[in-house]
Amino acid sequence: MMEERKILQFHEMELDDRILKAISKLGWTEPTLIQEAAIPLLLEGKDVIVKARTGSGKTAAFALPLIQKILNTKMSATEQCISALVLAPSKELCQQTRVAIEQMSENCGKVLRVIDLSSSDVVAQRHVLSERPDVVVSTPAKMLNHLQANALNLKNIETLVVDEADLVFSFGFEKEFKKIVHYLPPIYQAVLVSATITEEVIDIKSIILKNPVVLRLEEPELVPEQQLSHQRIIAEEDDKPAILYALLKLRLIRGKNVIFVNSVDRCYKQV
Ligand SMILES: Nc1ncnc2c1ncn2[C@@H]1O[C@H](COP(=O)(O)OP(=O)(O)OP(=O)(O)O)[C@@H](O)[C@H]1O
């Protein structure tokens, strides 16, 4: 008889009791495959590339170690500083990530603060940034705006996460991304999360990662019929980024060029 594989449980991962409590409140009884593999490596301080499909629990795979690391740093830190930066390609994803990190750190009281810079309230953001929240979540464009306005300092960053890395460049954020890297300190832990390893991902990898461990969670590709070949979608100007994001996320437009007719600002290139 084949022996059942023993899953490494959350409570065996050297996570703080406050984090374990939040996990239990979320109703998660055991880690997903990618969490089981990634969390111990990230807690060890390794740079990691996580390649896994949507819905595999990638957010917690990078967020739980990130929260743990901040709690550890806070035990000896003398001053409040921004210690983690999460870059994501869309406003929707930034918002989801902020909410997820807040839920996972809910039991840490007011110890850990997260801000999402992708929303439009710049005045309120400047105020929160002046208090140096622990985690900043942003799209590359918004992050660069704030950096160029000297609204924040990334010199104490210990962790950089690039979520949905394969979409970051597809959304036209290549220039911004490369500029942001110049504001980072020489040493930090980097995590790159992506559903596919595209040329863009390899480009980002060469800029931010040092000897990364690559975790690949292989899953069946979408069958060809599920991919769009030629479709016209009529959309309001404001809805275009969200629609594009949904199509990219579902990998329905992989290998296709998406052109917004009547829109001169951006022509999204092949993913
Ligand atoms: N260990 C777990 N047990 C049960 N549910 C979990 C666990 N980890 C995450 N989830 C839930 O699974 C869902 C997907 O998780 P998550 O958003 O982290 O996945 P993802 O791979 O980042 O997907 P997406 O690309 O959609 O963001 C979420 O609703 C999350 O609350």
Summary, kept brief:
The chain is of the alpha/beta class and 271 residues long. The chain is built from 10 helices and 7 strands. It folds into 2 domains: 207 residues, Rossmann fold (3-Layer(aba) Sandwich); 39 residues, no CATH class.
Description of the molecule:
This protein is of the alpha/beta class. Helix content is 38%, strand content 11%. A 7-stranded parallel beta sheet has the order 3-4-2-5-6-1-7, with helices on both faces. Helix 5 links the parallel strand 3 and strand 4. Helix 2 runs parallel beside helix 3 and helix 6 packs across helix 8. The radius of gyration is 19 Å and the shape is globular. The N and C termini lie far apart (44 Å). Adenosine-5'-triphosphate binds next to helix 3.
Number of domains: 2
Bound ligands: adenosine-5'-triphosphate
Helix count, DSSP H or I runs of 4 or more residues: 10
Distance between the termini: 44 Å
User: What order do the SSEs take from the amino end to the carboxyl end, as H and E?
Assistant: HHEHEHEHEHEHHEHEH
What would the average pLDDT be, to the nearest integer? 83
CATH class of the largest domain: Alpha Beta
Ordered list of secondary-structure elements with their pairings:
Elements: H1 17-25, H2 33-43, E1 48-51, H3 58-76, E2 84-87, H4 91-104, E3 114-116, H5 122-130, E4 135-138, H6 140-148, E5 159-162, H7 165-168, H8 174-181, E6 189-194, H9 199-208, E7 213-216, H10 240-249
Parallel strand pairs: 1-6, 1-7, 2-4, 2-5, 3-4, 5-6
Helix pairs in contact: 2-3, 3-4, 6-8
Adenosine-5'-triphosphate binds next to helix 3.
